[in-house]
Specification:
Elements lengths: L1 E2 L6 E2 L4 E3 L7 E5 H14 L1 H13 L1 H12 L3 H29 L1 H14 L1 H14 L1 H13 L3 H10 L16 E2 L5 E2 L2 E5 L6 E6 H9 L4 H17 L1
Antiparallel strand pairs: 1-2, 3-4, 5-6, 7-8
Helix pairs in contact: 1-2, 4-5
């Protein structure tokens, strides 16, 4: 057991960080006190903290530690500890990251631009791989970004239309198109008014193209219907 000189509470030696300068090989402050003090120093002087982190990242000690973590016998134990720590602090870390980006948007923008430029091909390959594995999420995101329709609203519209195109009545599962490479592209189109942006309904790609060719003009569509009917009757 050892008494923390900060909070004056006796704790097991495992509750103190290691220190080569201490007679018992442990720091004088317990882990919670040492961590709280380090966070306070970082908040008081963030520039000094970033500079210290950069120096440590470039040091030989850090390189040796990283190699030991990657290749040493404790690799799986360390990875599991990291996973557990990430789960415990996931929400807190996300909140702090949002606050940091909001406080210094230009610095983060520059950082992400440098990172993208240095790893462009790798990032694009990862994005393509993720998009292929998450097609429905990509489609849902694009629908919401382009038309403001959420996944729940999209599913509700499909149910309201009994799973069919609102114009020609073709079943939704028959709307998939085969494209180059053997992959499948959904033929379900979110039809909307190009003047107001209001979503009208879900239609197949054929009907959507037809409306586009006729410029969404009811008069043209009626004239085309009359034209087809005229020659159907004569034949």
């Amino acid at each position: 057991m050892k008494r923390c000189t900060k909070c004056e509470v006796e704790k097991p030696l495992e509750g103190f960080h290691k220190s080569a300068r201490s007679p018992d090989g442990r720091q004088y402050w317990c882990k919670p006190c040492a961590i709280a003090a380090a966070r306070e120093r970082a908040l008081r002087n963030p520039d000094a903290k970033r500079e210290a982190d950069r120096k440590y990242a470039a040091s030989e000690k850090n390189k040796a530690n990283r190699k030991a973590r990657r290749e040493g016998p404790q690799r799986e134990v360390i990875l599991e500890q990291k996973r557990q720590s990430w789960e415990r602090h996931k929400e807190e870390n996300a909140r702090r990251a949002r606050e940091a980006r909001a406080a210094e948007p230009e610095r983060f923008k520059e950082y992400y631009q440098r990172k993208y430029a240095a790893n462009k091909e790798k990032i694009l390959a990862q994005n393509r791989k993720w998009a292929v594995a998450n097609r429905e999420r990509v489609r849902a995101y694009r629908r919401q970004r382009s038309y403001g329709i959420t996944p729940e609203e999209f599913d509700r519209k499909i149910l309201d239309q009994n799973g069919r195109c609102e114009i020609c009545g073709i079943e939704m599962h028959l709307m998939d198109e085969r494209i180059k490479g053997g992959t499948t592209r959904t033929g379900i189109c979110v039809d909307h008014c190009h003047k107001t942006g209001v979503v009208r309904g879900l239609i197949c790609s054929g009907c959507n193209k037809g409306l586009g060719y006729f410029k969404d003009d009811p008069a043209r569509l009626k004239a085309a219907a009359g034209y087809i009917a005229k020659y159907q009757q004569s034949s």
